[in-house]
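Archive entry. Fields below.
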Amino acid sequence: MANYLVQRLIQTILILFGIAAITFLLLYLVPADPAVQIAGRSATAQTVANIRRELGLDQPLATQFLRYLGGLIHGDLGRSYAQKTEVMTLIAARIPATITLMVAGIAAELAIGVTLGVIAAVRRNTLLDRIVMIASFTTISAPQFLVALLLLYVFAATLGWFPMSGFGSPAHVVLPALTLGILGAGWYARIVRSTMIDVLNQDYVRTAKAKGVAPLRVVLRHALPNALLPVVAMIGIDIGQFMAGLVVVEAVFGWPGIGQLAWQAIQQVDIPIIMGVTLVSALAIVIGNLLADLIAPFIDPRIRLR
Amino acid sequence: MRVFRELLRRPLALFGVVIILLVLLLALSAPWLAPYAPDEQLFEGLSLEGAPLPPNAQFWLGTDTLGRDLLSRVMYGARTSLLIGLVANGMAVTLGLLVGMTAGYARGVVGAILMRFTDLMMAFPALLLAIVLAALLRPSLWIVALVIALVNWVQVARIAFTETSALAERDFILAERSLGAGHARIVGLHIAPHLVSTAIVWGTLGIATTVLLEATLSFLGIGVQPPEPSWGNIIFESQSYFTAAPWLVFFPGIAILLTALSFNLVGDALRDILDPTQRGRG
Amino acid sequence: MKNWLRSTVFATMVALTPLAASAQQPQKGGTMTVTFKDDVSTLDPAVGYDWQNWSMIKSLFSRLVDYKPGTAELVPSLAESFEVAPDGLTYTFKLRPNAKFTNGRTITAADVKYSIERAVDPKTQGPGAGFFGAIKGHEDMQAGKASELPGVVAVDDRTVRFELSRPDATFLHVMAINFASVVPKEEVEKAAGDFGKKPVGSGTFKLADWTIGQRLVFERNPDYFDKGLPYLDKFVIEVGQEPLVALLRLQRGEVDVAGDGIPPAKFLELKNDPAYKDQIIQGDQLNTGYVTLNTRIKPLDDVRVRQALNMAVNKERIVRIINNRAVPANQILPPLMPGYDKEYKGYAYDVAKAKALLAEAGLKDGFSTVLYATNTDPQPRIAQAIQQDLSAIGVKAEIKSLAQANVIAAGGTEGEAPMIWSGGMAWIADFPDPSNFYGPILGCAGATQGGWNWAWYCNKDIDARATAADAMSDPAKAGERAKVWGQIFTDIMKNDAPWIPVFNEQRVVVRSKRMGGDASIYIDPTRVLNYDALWIKQ
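PREDICTED_STRUCTURE:
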């Protein structure tokens, strides 16, 4: 086990460096000059040249990359071009908001998804089951921004139950979390349904049933815990999905997380921030996948950790 | 043919097929059926104060913020969405199959490098990558398709890799090899045919993902260039109006949802029919 | 011989006088809440250069001279008086004796010298270094050959002298620009490169708290040298707030000023609602939205083609698309700018004449070209409106709607962008002087790689006239100088037409019921929002 973890750690570091290298290369192919952007409209050619030199943008690509990697090894993500602050500070200031949203979103996914999945499994092949399954298909086919806009329109603009956007009170998190919840619940519902059906068909459940244990009790005490393992594994994968889709939810709801930071940085070609957010998101994805992989052997004993 | 007949026997898949055919028909017939040109800014399409018009007898779905007919734009938008869906997803599936098959068959150093690269891409925050690329690479329809393909090939590659490595160890392949058959012949004749069902399933499911991704990029203003309509950029241009003119978000939104749903339904049914062992999230 | 000169603009002003009490008398106290969508990037006065942080920096720091709130009129600020030599090459400022930084230290002439040099120092990476180009030694310092400006001399604690290498009529405006803000050296050093997040100045307010991505809290500076200012005890900037949301919150009384204005969808609703009549303020600002016509790309290199394009754009319709929140423009300068030519009518909308001109240029069947625009609403929509107008005279313009940085890069690359719609990056003047609309965006110096003269317009004759106009540094001749400038801009449009001036965008602000003060301080020509002069009705 320890051996496996060390192996995964090395792999993770390699992956992060690979991602850093690819992102870095891609960003330097971009046809926009950060120095011109920062210098603004009244700058002289000399000022632009000075800014370019101070940022090290006049150096060859390889030198710039090695310098970036050198910083990265020391945990230094560099300084923002436009904001003139450590990228680490900027990201650290926004991480709590992103994590809040992620936790609330996953909680909403679980609440909706597991409930629907259990209902569908228990009432399988009934009309209710069909409706739940069609609904779960529909939500996984909906674009995030559309669900977000519809929720905003109904619950914030028309009914006024929740604030339209922003951060601060628990009420603010409801709509963005619900957006994530609705979108992700479909996956959970399907997984819970199929594992529950398997579990319900197993002998010990049948025995319990035969012994006259109340059906609800059978489902909740015996079947559900067994059906939850794959759900936990899916949370790991979900973290990745969440990190990748961050920009959209945070943009629509004005959520002050790292997705918003990235979106503003993209507009300004603030390369250090784009790099930083990409790496932090990649790290979260890798950790999420690791979580999923660690749980896999418990779900299916045939899978062994390499 | 058997597959198709079985497909039509499932009500949900049938629903999907009908919707897909309908969208396809709308897209192809747009030049003849659309009441207006999609980029024609009509004087009577805006109120005197410059507000878009709600659905009415002249403009069935209303007008947008430039006074263009929304129905025509949604119809032409179907062309954009389907075109990107087919092209981008086609590229992604092809690339994924090539990488996966090569890695699975060659194994050794080549296979290891390819699969480590695939792992790396799995850890990439995909949408973030797509947004960065689309925003900074001077977007056009083809760039958007390329970006989507670059992001979406990974899953196909993994599945193709798993299937190919399993096949490559099977006796008949080993036998062919020992008989001195060329690699191209083995891959082409014996491995590729086994991956056809994978390609069909992913070719269908992937279109749903692609349509959603295109809509998302366009929604952020970094997708298809105006005035060419796409369902995503219609919503992007109307976003600030959505409380006052919800139809501008509602109609293209429904179009995106129905199209993605249909491809998902059909794809899922195909997976059931072609390969009952592969289920779940994919 | 030197003489203490009281210029016409300074004549009446000794200190900032409270606003004309036309409506009500300003009241002191209270906390105001302002919202913005984007986070504040930096509050370092040598670095900050966007319309949002511009007014916050103005209130955090003070400068030798400043503008009377709500006007473009220069008044002494940190300096209590000043003197200009007759040749216009020496400016001597006398500092107030009671001006202190918020860390308690008295401001001296050495602080002024340090601050200007810091703004010019390449290491600061400041975008405003070029404004100080007239000061002796500027070139050497920018080239990294010198570490100080010999042209800025701290004569004694309270006297600072500027020596110029050429007369510069805009020099007093330059002393009022944010980049000339006075900063305490010890605090800059203490912040270790993070002064933009930990600013210390001597303005009307000080920064009390900054939660990145959420809010900034500004508190009254009790030691501000003008005891009458500011009126507010405190103001809070909340960021990450969508304009639509901000507006709904304002209607509920949670927000006092929606910093990003009113979103288009709500604008009509509010404007037509009599209840909001007193809460909506709409006014002109120093802004022109324009399309650059690249004079070095065929067929736009033919002036007849550029004139034809000018006639082809239906500006009235474009103004309608943005809900009449702008006025059609016929020339480069906005109406508020000194030098605006009331006589000049520009190119009227005339499709037939435009077609005729194109035919004369040998382009009877039109031509294909590319129009760049930024990708934030409503800019792509305006570009599409322009595109449709051009197609009426046979000009097929492909739209490239890109991230702002990409548009700027394309504009600054020779031969790349035939046409650029300036919206979203539109020229809002740094200071209210017509020369600011020329140098970087129409002068030969701006027509370089990475420059902002996206029309790549370079007329040596006009350049010479511009230089001459800027040498007219005697403040008494300000009126005459404005006329000279006005003629320059009119001639540029008449003879060369390197732009299509489209509209002068107005600023629309909505405030809560309790906010007082004259409309002009909500659309301050030099500050956007003038935090110093805003006040709350008790």
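CURATOR_NOTE: Chain C has 15 helices and 21 strands.
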